[in-house]
Specification:
Number of strands: 13
CATH architecture of the largest domain: 3-Layer(aba) Sandwich
Number of domains: 4
CATH class of the largest domain: Alpha Beta
Helix content: 40-55%
Radius of gyration: 34 Å
Oligomer: single chain
Distance between the termini: 86 Å
Length: 367
């Protein structure tokens, strides 16, 4: 019905594509028609030049698909009927209708870097596997997260392994090519460095808090111990952009909460450091991460340390200078002293704010 010679009912067959499939015939035919709807193409029936003479084709507007034809969009959705008639008497018939276009679902924020795990029974097999994966991914629109999940959860892990990380397809493929060309870099030791005061910023860690529950739980746990001595919500100070974040007692508490939560997060990824290093307040975080302090004791130390340092005489300042100690000492005048030697060409001075500022101008003028 409702078909004419210029718009006939097209008839095709799955059997010409894959032959007899017994009980799977109906399912395979459904798959074929779903793909036809998706791509807007009516696939031709193979190995046939003209319709069977045993059928009266003049009885209705029905034609055999002897060649591939476009299936254009019209005023109504595409529809197709699939019949499966088994010789054993198992018969089925379904009518398929094109699904309306759906707006893409909002993607949850994913990690900035995606890890991919590859392995092999030998170093050569590992390199070959990395090359095969790079070739498969290059130019593909597959989800990087989905690939990473499948590699980590559904693949056998062999003795020779490599992990590559990247923010996009290009970075991951480049890293895989590096494994393919050079193999493993050999055993290495992992160290984690916890930084000190001066790197704080409003909103730091907010994206991680919203993305990783394990980070959020660890951050909240530290805040629960620090809120009372601080007299206010540390999370509100950090995420709310409160200017008191730059006050020493809040700065140090915020950095400890952030760094301890970061350590918990990377630990959940399986990172096991061989060494822990800390600078200034980061030393407390390193000690906590090493198991020297409990979270409660570490937070108590952080709170007292920050309070005492903030109560020190006002009007002072510190300055990090990228220069050798021998170049800095001759320039130190009244009111400023060498506070720390961090490296062959990295020192810190401290003293009266005016004297430190004058020293900063001097070394800036020297480049």
């Amino acid at each position: 019905q409702e078909h004419s010679a210029d718009r006939p009912l097209w008839l095709g067959s799955l059997k010409s594509n894959i032959g007899h499939t017994q009980a799977a015939a109906g399912v395979a035919a459904v798959i074929k028609m779903v793909m036809a709807m998706r791509h807007g193409v009516l696939p031709r029936t193979l190995h046939v030049d003209e319709p069977s003479s045993h059928v009266d084709w003049s009885a209705g507007a029905v034609e055999l698909l002897t060649e591939q034809r476009p299936w254009p969009e019209v005023e109504r959705p595409r529809r197709a009927a699939v019949s499966s008639f088994g010789i054993s008497g198992t018969n089925s018939h379904v009518i398929l209708e094109q699904e309306p276009e759906q707006a893409p679902a909002a993607q949850d924020a994913g990690p900035a870097l995606v890890p991919w795990v590859v392995s092999g029974r030998s170093a050569e097999a590992l390199r070959a596997q990395a090359g095969k994966l790079a070739a498969f991914v290059r130019g593909s629109d597959a989800s990087l997260l989905d690939i990473g999940y499948s590699l980590a959860s559904s693949r056998t892990v062999f003795e020779h392994r490599a992990v590559v990380v990247g923010a996009d397809q290009e970075e991951l493929v480049t890293a895989l090519e590096g494994v393919r060309a050079a193999g493993s870099a050999g055993p290495a030791r992992t160290a984690l460095l916890f930084t000190g005061q001066g790197c704080q910023r409003a909103g730091m860690g907010r994206e991680l808090y919203e993305t990783y529950p394990v980070f959020a739980e660890a951050f909240d746990a530290a805040c629960a111990h620090l809120d009372v001595p601080l007299g206010r919500s540390l999370k509100d100070v950090v995420f709310g952009g409160d200017p008191v974040l730059d006050q020493t007692r809040f700065t140090q508490a915020a950095l400890f909460a952030l760094e301890s939560a970061l350590f918990t997060l990377v630990s959940s990824f399986g990172v096991r450091p061989d060494a822990l290093i800390g600078h200034s307040i980061g030393e407390v975080t390193a000690a906590y991460a090493a198991g020297v302090f409990s979270l409660e004791d570490a937070c108590a130390l952080v709170a007292v340390r920050g309070r005492l340092m903030q109560a020190a005489r006002a009007g002072g300042a510190m300055l990090a200078i990228a220069a050798p100690e021998t170049d800095v000492l001759p320039e130190l005048g009244d009111g400023v002293s060498l506070a720390a030697v961090n490296g062959p060409a990295a020192v810190v001075v401290s003293g009266d704010a005016d004297a430190v500022e004058a020293l900063e101008e001097l070394f800036r003028s020297r480049g």
